[in-house]
Amino acid sequence: MSLTNSFLSKFSNDRRFSIPYPFIWTVTIDDSGLPGNITSALGKINQSWKGVSSSKSWTDAGNDNILVAQEVTIPTESIEVTSLGQENRGGFMPGYGVTQRTEFISRNVVINFIETESDIETELFRPWIIALGVEGLRTSRLKCNINVKQYTRDGIVRKHYTFIDAFPTNSEGYALTYGDNEFLIKSVTFGYTNYNVR
After folding, report:
1. Can you give the CATH number for the domain in which 127 is found?
2. How many separate domains does the chain show?
3. Which of 173, 195, 198 is nearest to 186 (CA)?
4. Is 182 among the domain residues?
5. Longest dimension (CA), the chain
6. Are 32 and 55 in contact (CB under 8 A)?
7. Least confident piece of the model among 19-33, 95-109, 125-139
8. Which residue range(s) make up the domain with 152?
9. Strand partners, 67
10. What does the pLDDT average to over 128-155?
11. Is 45 within the bounds of a domain?
């Protein structure tokens, strides 16, 4: 059997060779206490925001609802390299060394949420960003962990990313128009201090 036929045979019969659906992602946010902290921060500038609510209202098992992302842009991981020593000194070539891992604020994750009847972008992420503008990042009151899971075609978790101490840094604007678009996508960018993959 040729290598191509061998792969195709495994692809059709062996789950380990199954290509995942890259657009099936679920998102959970460990944000207990966050809505109250957002409301408190907004109160300092005498600004109220309708319906600041927890992401749990979208992911609670009792209402069979989930947060679904159409696309997740996993952050770039890079290091900064510099030359060490001096050139043209006795025939020795300069060495190279790693100065640092790229700073965390440059490594962000972008999640494109599919909007449902309830609008999590308006009811959580947008007021969260405004609250960060008031409080800053001095404490962990406005940070939380975000879990993003990718699934195989048969519904098994393939990758599980946890973004630690995450916070939104940008919520893209959008146009509300009458047209034939099937879904309205809300794009939110998050910063974080670290992440891991399971």
Report:
1. 2.30.110
2. 1
3. 173
4. yes
5. 74
6. no
7. 19-33
8. 20-75+107-197
9. 27
10. 87
11. yes
